[in-house]
Amino acid sequence: MRVTIDESRCQGHGRCFSIAPGLFESDELGNGVVLGDGIVAADQERHANLAVANCPEGAVSIEVA
Amino acid sequence: MSHLPVADFATDFDHTDPAWVNDPYPIYEDLRERCPVAHSDRYGGAWLPVRHEDVASIANDHEHFTSRNVVVNEGRPGPQAPPAPIGVAPPITSDPPFHQLARRLLLPAFSPNAINELEGFTRELCTQLLDGLGDVDHLDAAVDYAQHIPVGVIAKMLGFPPEDGDLFREFVHIILEGVDLPFEERIASFEPLRAYFETQILEHQEHPRDDLTSFLLNVELNGQRLEMRHVFGTMLLILAAGIDTTWSAIGASIWHLARTEADRTRLVAEPELMPIAIEELLRAYAPVTMARLVKEDFDFQGHPMKKDDWVLLSFPAANRDPGVFERADEVVIDREINRHAAFGLGVHRCVGSNLARMELRVSLECFLERFPEFHLEDETAVTWARGQVRGPRTLPLVVVAPPRT
User: Fold this and answer.
1) Under an 8 A CB cutoff, do B349 and A29 touch?
2) How far apart are CA B65 and CA B305, in angstroms?
3) Which of B5, B102, B132, B323 suits a disulfide with B90, CB 3.0-4.6 Å?
């Protein structure tokens, strides 16, 4: 499982890095950025799913390898 | 101003009507089932979509809708109005592509890291307000508490004298609530605000310092300093959008907790729930409704929109859409899945959302710590702001402070 952010959709609501600070961070403008390679550890899966479900712009998604 | 009573909100809506001001949610619900895009001939022609999907689609459609004016009133931007792309209050009144440039300038000042640095100041401000009340068993949470918090924070950010708070509130009242004045009167009512900003700009030119006003005076866009009307307009935006909105969110949240003992006691017992609770309070009581103007005659899903018609972009209605939110009309204080649109959708997402969230969280934490128990003194004594920003303007409470140790 891997998280991604569609930069063209992200408007900086900041929900992803508030909900899942282990997977996302803010850039200097307040837009969400995936930390590292975005691979989700088992104990982070719940947070990853919540980040997807709470993005008002539908910019966060999960790829399942 | 008084209006003709609204005959039917589907064909004659008015967002300053007393029924709407008092409780707009049943109106949205009724319209969602019947329309779901209402129309009114008032304000020279206006539309009101109430489904989340339609609000999102219009917020993202810059081909058919413009942000040149975002406060519905009797006038339209005419030849005398500040020209595009800057408009009256950039970037909220700017359209792409200029919008992105004007917005990018502001974003770093409102990023999560920049806002974290204001948390200590905000907490101190809230504590001082509560200390200043003394040992009380009654207070007005809107007048004595909520309204002072964003005023203090915005004055600090812009570098304006904190003692001018009453003036700011008067300016914001004119901008946001004087919407049904005849157009000439509305323009004239902005004069004291213009004069005040001029004084502040001159003062900052003579004594530059580390605040947003000095930043706006010195920052460059495309290698040039901002035009003075751009500086002025962005100051107007920060003042107008930073005060009533947050004051309303704080007040509406306290109002909810005053009438919902279960949620209040749970937040006292589980303060770690606060970030999730805040998102739900923002969803349920989103203070801000935006507006767009129709660019050219255009058919929106069978609705014949005309050039210069208003569209009220109701994020509060979108946030109550049962097609998107389970139990949409209930406050579920620990709602985990909540893609609410309280801060708007698309490129105009509220630039101050990180600031607003911080102020809301800190102000509620401080209030609940001081008064773990409170309830409405008189439900009918609560009054609500009219226009496009909704929140309580009088909120009399009976409060119980724990014994001081």
Assistant:
1) no
2) 10
3) B102
Residues in CB range of B70: below 8 A, 6 or more apart: B92, B93, B290, B291, B292
For testing contact with chain A, the best of B349, B350, B358, B361 (most A CBs within 10 A): B349
Say what the alpha-carbon torsion angle B63, B320, B239, B113 is, to the nearest 10 degrees. Answer: -90
- Determine contact, residues B312/B58, Cβ cutoff 8 Å: no
CA distances from B88 to A33, A37, B49, B197, B347 (A): 33, 43, 25, 14, 18
Residue B2, pLDDT above cutoff 80? no
Question: In angstroms, rounded to a whole number, what is the distance separating the alpha carbons of residues A40 and B319?
Answer: 30
**Which of B112, B340, B345 lies closest to A26 in CB terms?**
B112
Q: What is the dihedral of CA B314, B320, B148, B159, to 10 degrees?
A: -50
Q: What are phi and psi of B292, to 5 degrees?
A: -130, 165
Inter-chain touch B108–A29, beta carbons under 8 Å: yes
Contact flag B345-A53 (C-beta cutoff 8 Å): no
Helix ranges (DSSP H) in B325-388? 353-370
A30: nearest CB among B110, B275, B341: B110
Taking the C-alpha atoms of residue B335 and residue B319, their distance in angstroms, rounded to an integer, is 13
Per residue in B340-385, pLDDT tens?
Answer: 999 999 999 999 999 999 999 999 999 999 999 999 999 999 999 9
Mutate to test the interface with A, among B101, B353, B358, B361 (most CBs of A within 10 A): B353
Find, among B176, B168, B174, the residue nearest to B188 by Cα.
Answer: B174
Structure tokens at B72: 């519905």
Q: What is the dihedral of CA B50, B52, B54, B60, to 10 degrees?
A: 130
Q: With both helix axes pointing from N to C terminus, report the angle between B274-284 and B261-269 in degrees, rounded to the nearest 10.
A: 150
CA distances, B16 to each of A28, B1, B5, B250 (Å):
39, 9, 10, 22
The Cα B13–Cα A59 span in angstroms is 34
CA–CA distance, A15 with B279 (Å, rounded to integer) = 10
| SS3 label, residue B290 | strand
Rounded distance between C-alpha atoms, residue B287 and residue B147, angstroms: 14
Residue of B nearest to A56 (CA): B339
Q: What is the pTM of this model?
A: 0.96
Q: Is the pLDDT of residue B180 over 80?
A: no
Helix, strand, coil fractions of chain B, as percent rounded to 5: 50, 10, 35
A30 closest CB neighbour out of B107, B275, B345? B107
CA–CA separation, A35 and A5 (whole Å): 11
HSE-CB for A22 with a 13 A CA cutoff? 13
